[in-house]
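User: Can you write out an input/output pair for a complex, sequences first and structure second?

Assistant: Here is one pair. Inputs:
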Amino acid sequence: MKEHTHAQAAAEFIKDDARTHWHDETLWHVRSKRDLSAQGIPEWETLRDRASATKDYVLSHLGELLEQFESNALANGVEVLWAKDAKEHNEHVYRILQENKVENIVKSKSILTEECGLNHYLEDKGYDVVDTDLGERIIQFAKQAPSHIVLPAIHLKKQDIGEIFHKHIGTDKGASDPGYLTEAARQHLRKKFVEANAAITGVNFGIAETGGFVVCTNEGNADMGTHLADIHIACMGIEKLIPRAADLGVFLRLLARSATGQSITNYSSHFHKAAPGKKLYIILVDNGRTEQLAREDFKNSLKCIRCGACMNTCPIYRRSGGYSYNSTVPGPIGSILSPGKDLKKFSTLPFASTLCGSCSDVCPVKINIHEQLYKWRQVITENVDMGASKRLSMRVAGATFGKPVLYDLAGKMARTALKFTPDSLVYSSLNVWGKHRDLPEVPKESFKEWYKKNRN
Amino acid sequence: MTSKESILNAIKNHKPEATALPELLVFPKEPQLIERYEKGLNGNGGKLQQVQSLAEVQQYVNSHYTADQLVASLVDEVSGNVDVRKISDPHDLEHVEVAVVRGELGVAENGAIWMPEANVVHRVLPFIAQHLIIIIEEETLLTNMHEAYQKVNVAESGYGVFIAGPSKTADIEQSLVIGAHGPRSLTVFLLRKS
């Protein structure tokens, strides 16, 4: 299959102008709610500092904390499994399902299982995995992937969802009222919860000192699933640890406020032991995380708590949609995580940014996202063939910016040339830059020339 | 080499320079705990009722639910018609209309209530019921989540949950809908100091 660049995929998305604007505005609204919520907490910046420092501690003591987590979980009667990669993770899940003769599976939101391709793997083995988060169920029916890590169906309008539900669960043709559609999904999924033998969940936070973990939802779907089924499989990336239960004070205050502006998710469930007669499994997954930990410039990306704030604020994400990234985690954080997994496949993602830094400003664990985007660009330029035209223009630009005399001359020439550049050249199909852009008005002089004249 | 060993080895070989574990945070106490709590709860879609006695909760249940609806109460002072303690399979709770339980403490900043497993007997009860009533005492109100985690030992029982509102979703065009899978309403009764 031909790989698409981010720009090509984004071009597809913005063909529908009205929808692009709607997507942009909807996510900006979520960002605004986040601001309002954060501003309501005087100690907000202290919380961000503390969360970041706590995650620094976790990353620099990851081995010890994992062993502590495992031994406490084992003492709680939990079965702990380790997986080097997606394949091993999926095989663990399959073995557990086989051993326990599971027939019906419900799953709550887990980006890790998306990353591992668990649903497809299990479907190939003959299992039907029912995603129970409303947004995930919608896109599962539509055979799509999530376009956002917190709002999986944010790319769809209610009319689209009405169509999908009409086809799959028999709602009235043309009905698109969110209340009506949600009620229909409630009735449909309640049956699935009642029938399920096994529930799969992700993990928001693993607590090293107790061996337990926390799962956050608003819908209560993780709890409906796990408490009715006999088997609970929790899939957890090894970076999800926190040292102490008390650290949750910091992280739970930050997570939902950063994600959607709400003060906390309506359910923050703490699992330590299986209910009597039931079984609880935790799968600890590496899948490239230890490699990322080894990259000095990029290890901080592992602090991510998956709130999605960087997506909601990103001027590129909002206008290009989650699918344009072609990566499980899209947006700014996805653009610094994914190149570590496959440099070539994701080579255009770090360039899908204006480097405005808004992502770093809203990040609750203070990941320097825009700086890492910039650093990935260096790595990619050195290691991946960018195509001849970009290579040439970068080399010329590098030489020009590196020599002040050349830079001044080029500026003068450009100011003259811009005046006389015909539109046909700017907007020709050869010049992709000209798409959706106008040339700037030409200043009479450079800032340097102006400064020389005016400094006294 | 097992996967565990290979993961731990990979970590050991590339461990970032050690940093210190930060101290826990303490912030000033909220002076208007009840007002703040109500604001937090309302923000999540829950409602607060302040009462002087549990008899008022009984009156509320009597006036809102009919005799043919299933009321599962785990509070001695409020009578129901489902004996949760006698049920062995949680699936038998499927048709419960309203559950009445006690919460351990309330958090003013966000309306959250700590609910340990013992208070609900079956973990699924506060999720599977169509409506949920939680009783908390005024004395248990705390300012923020930091205070809550100082009070609560999360590992004391096998399971516990902070419940901060009814089941809700905004997955369709960001329109808020209450009653996604779990309770369609959360009513918190705050028992005032006598």
